[in-house]
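Students often ask why we bother encoding 3D structure as a string. The short answer is that it lets us treat folding as translation between two languages. Here is a chain of 49 residues written in the first language.
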Amino acid sequence: MKNGWTKNRIEVEIKGVKTLRLELPDGLNLNEQALQMTLAVKLYEAGQC
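And here it is in the second language, the structure alphabet:
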């Protein structure tokens, strides 16, 4: 626990070659699918996939 909140750990596999680890405060109330879709959209918009 740091700064009064705990962290969620979510790992997302990207095309079987890389792993992204995010540590987020519990209060965000985001599920794994929402994070995966958000990341996919941002990568697509940046032309990275």
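Translate back mentally: The beta strands are 7-14, 18-25. Keep this in mind for the problem set.
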